Amino acid sequence: MRVLQRRPSNAVDVWHKSRYLRLLSMPEGLALAEVENRGSIANPEVRFRILAGNATFTARLAARRALRRMLGLDVDPAPLRHLAEAERTFHSTARALRGMRPPRFSNLFEAFASVIPFQQLSLDAGVSIVGRLVVKFGEHLDFEGRRCFAFPTAHAIAAAHLARLRSCGLSARKAQTLRDVARAVESGGVSEAGLSGMCTDEALRTLVAMSGIGPWSASLVLLRGLGRLDVFPPGDVGAMRGVRALMRRGPQAPLERIIERFGDYRGYLYFCALGGSLLSKGLIHAAP
User: How many CB atoms lie within 10 A of CB 149?
Assistant: First the structure.
């Protein structure tokens, strides 16, 4: 969950009292979900319940599907772990991250909106901008003295004035790109179903053809939005710095061969780099 969250200041993905809280915005209505692991890393027993909002049977099924997707619960971590542990230089980090599964954003628009603000910015700056977007455009629900926010929908951003989007810290170009993408998702011009039916190269070409979406953004949308683990975002300075730290390589050392060694799981190396960064900052702790 911390890898999904990236920073504790994330207003949508919340860690509270050893539980994950997420306000889901679904066609069935808002539902505040709580997720906890009652088992261990070796034998997880992940449970969820609806704390507030729509708790009908249909809403519970939709929430369950969304949470399984977001937390990567249907991804077998064993081959990923074995691949990482085979790299001698970061064997200890791979062991520390044991049990980590590749997370995904809840839907295609959330993936776009969680990537566009970060273009050519630091992780912390991007998180701040997304936080302001969430507060200004996301629905909310109050529960036990806490205000919980849902991620803004494509519909909400598609209808927004550019000036309001820019007031969240977006440049004029990014505000236009975000609204254009929201309208494309809302109209069905770009869809998860359509992208899922394409091979990775074709999906990348389709995304890069959209105004304001370059190879880095397209790769992250596929990796973090659609779970395409064969993608490593090109030119990602933070990820490359993280990989160099994992591999104990100098700042100018080439990494292309290392990334290619992971083959169709090269995207998992991205999550290992992010996990390693969170470990170094004390935001997560090593698995026992």
Answer: 20
